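Inverse folding, one chain.
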């Protein structure tokens, strides 16, 4: 193959689109991951139990519940990312999504009374119910984001 082939490939619209779009993709991905980690950290601070400590101690129910939080945040954040066109929009919708999702999580925690203690005690069925409720709210919030 000659060098003109490679110069033609590098000059192709597809490669040019990738070269200009890839840095934006990475930036949007990084912003969304920062939002998710921030939301998860805020949730860990707001919960009545110390999930991270429980997880470090081998509490499977706490690990399952926290995994539900991560997925529950990721679902609406991913929808928010897909409907946003700029970094500013990602930030605005991301913060709004996290705020609404954390509020919904707290409501679930209050409505499902006794679950925090049951999770501290390592009860897997309690964690499964909590995860289900949090994922359900994530899906509903995601649908609301798409209008």
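Residues assigned per position:
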């Amino acid at each position: 193959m000659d060098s003109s082939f490679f110069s033609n490939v590098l000059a192709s619209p597809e490669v040019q689109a990738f070269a200009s779009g890839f840095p934006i993709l990475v930036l949007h991905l990084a912003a969304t991951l920062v939002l998710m980690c921030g939301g998860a950290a805020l949730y860990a601070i707001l919960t009545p139990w110390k999930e991270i400590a429980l997880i470090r101690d081998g509490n499977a129910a706490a690990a399952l519940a926290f995994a539900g939080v991560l997925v529950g945040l990721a679902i609406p954040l991913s929808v928010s990312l897909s409907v946003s066109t700029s970094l500013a929009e990602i930030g605005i919708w991301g913060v709004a999504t996290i705020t609404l999702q954390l509020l919904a999580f707290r409501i679930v925690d209050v409505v499902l009374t006794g679950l925090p203690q049951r999770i501290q005690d390592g009860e897997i069925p309690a964690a499964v119910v909590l995860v289900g409720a949090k994922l359900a709210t994530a899906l509903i919030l995601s649908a609301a984001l798409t209008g």
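The chain has a mean pLDDT of 87. The longest helix spans residues 13-46.
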